[in-house]
Amino acid sequence: MNLENIKSKTRDFLHSESFKNITASIICALIGIIVGFVILLLINAQNAPKAMSTILKNFMYYKKPSMRSYYLGITLVKSVPLIFCAFSVMFAYKTGLFNIGIGGQYCIGIGASLLCALQFHLPWYLCVLASVVVAALWGAIVGIFKALWNVNEVIASIMMNWIALYAVNILMAKETMMNLTRSETYTIMSRSAKSILPSLGLGKLFNNNQYVTIAIPLTIVFAVAIMIVLNKTTFGYELKATGLNKYAAKYAGMNDKMNIITTMAIAGALGGFAASFYFLTDIQPWKTSSAVPAMGFSGIAVAFLGGLNPIGIIFAGFFIEHISLGGTLIDMRYYNPQIADLISSIIIYVCAFVLFIKYLLGKITERKGKGAEK
Questions:
Q1: What is the mean pLDDT of residues 123-149?
Q2: How many CB atoms lie within 10 A of CB 36?
Q3: Which residues, listed in sequence order, are joined to residue 179 by a DSSP beta bridge?
Q4: Which long-range contacts (CB under 8 A, 24 or more apart) does 152-161 make?
Q5: Which end of the chain is least crowded, N or C, by CB within 10 Å?
Q6: Mean pLDDT lowest for which of 10-19, 136-145, 261-270?
Q7: Percentage helix, strand, coil, to 5, in the chain?
Q8: Where are the alpha helices (DSSP H) in 95-173?
Q9: What is the dihedral of CA 361, 363, 368, 372, to 10 degrees?
Q10: Are 48 and 37 contacting, i.e. CB atoms less than 8 angstroms apart?
Q11: Rg of the chain in Å (alpha carbons)
Q12: Residue 373's pLDDT band (cuts 50, 70, 90)
């Protein structure tokens, strides 16, 4: 291979979407970490390096291999809902819609899965199915408003988020499901053990972590499936075509209204998977809340940090959760407990600028390419 071929391939790589996506994501993550470190320095400069090191280590902070393995499992378990929420945002975005309603779809999915588990004691697969169907219908409502009356999906989604939150608060406030003195639901294990997702022996790989379930490998399966649907099927092509230009899609013989509704229903269904794949591990109860779960909004940042690519989203979701959990381990003698949330929030916020950084990288490589041609 001669020098000209090497230069040509290097130039093609630098101009590729993959390079821009990966580089933009890394830059945003680094900016977030640097800004977070500066804040730690301002609060307590002497302990800032150790605190940031602890955040970045997360499960590696523990000395015993068994503990590292266990908390790696916890990080993976908590990454799953974040990744699925990002899948939902990405799927809608790829088809021309902005699903800011993933928080509500995730929330209503939680309500459906816990209702089936704690009230009706159904097996896990029926709990998952209920969560997915209800969340899909919740997303479809936004799609109907958009398709039939051209109501902006962002406005409709925000309204649906709050309706979902208070509906679930009311739904869960029963003595059969919630410990009213603590305002949180009972553990699923104490009420209906068959409603918990199966582990199939995966927990043994993480020091007998009981929260590690089939949800983790299924995340990879879903990532591949989404890629195939969007890029290799006529169905995916029609959804993307409708998102790009619904009038042109209609002229080409596609059912533009049904495609919009279907897109939002699928996005909602992914939110239902996020809810059931997390809460049916029994790792966390539902607590009466006055705020829409942040998981949905974090999913928006993860979707863009992952370059709107399902595989990239898996790595981005793990990174964000890794940082978030690492922040809980810093020495609270020197820092307020909320500093962990602050650092995580800054990193997530900066990640929202991935598309802007990608745009800048495109301009830089374009100029260098023109300079090389001259």
A1: 97
A2: 25
A3: 184
A4: 153/97, 153/98, 153/99, 153/100, 153/101, 153/264, 154/98, 154/100, 156/101, 157/99, 157/100, 157/101, 157/104, 158/100, 158/101, 160/101, 160/104, 161/100, 161/101, 161/103, 161/104, 161/107, 161/292, 161/296
A5: C
A6: 10-19
A7: 75, 0, 25
A8: 102-114, 124-149, 153-172
A9: 130
A10: yes
A11: 22
A12: low
Residue 92, pLDDT above cutoff 90: yes
Tokens of 275: 């809810």
The model's pTM is 0.93
User: Measured in whole angstroms, how far is the alpha carbon of residue 7 from the centre of its chain?
Assistant: 38
- How does pLDDT run across 202-222, given as a tens digit for each residue? 999 999 999 999 999 999 999
For 299, other C-beta atoms within 10 Å of its C-beta total 30
Tokens 């969560």 found at: 131
What 3-state class would DSSP assign to 204? helix
Q: Where on the phi/psi map is residue 308: left (φ > 0), alpha (ψ -120 to 50), or beta?
A: left
Does 227 score more than 90 pLDDT?
yes
Coil, helix or strand at residue 178: strand
**Cβ(15)–Cβ(369) under 8 Å?**
yes
Tokens of 53: 């090191």
Tokens standing for residue 38: 């500066």
Q: And the tokens for 76?
A: 């993976």
Q: What is the mean pLDDT of residues 271-285?
A: 97
User: Stretch 354-361: mean pLDDT, rounded?
Assistant: 79
Residue 4: how many CB atoms within 10 A of its CB? 8
Which two tokens mark 317? 């979701």
pLDDT digit string, tens, across residues 8-56: 776 666 667 777 888 888 888 888 889 889 989 999 999 999 999 998 9
How far, CA to CA in Å, does 64 sit from each of 51, 69, 175, 207, 303? 20, 9, 41, 11, 34
Give the rounded distance of the alpha carbon of 204 from its chain centre: 26
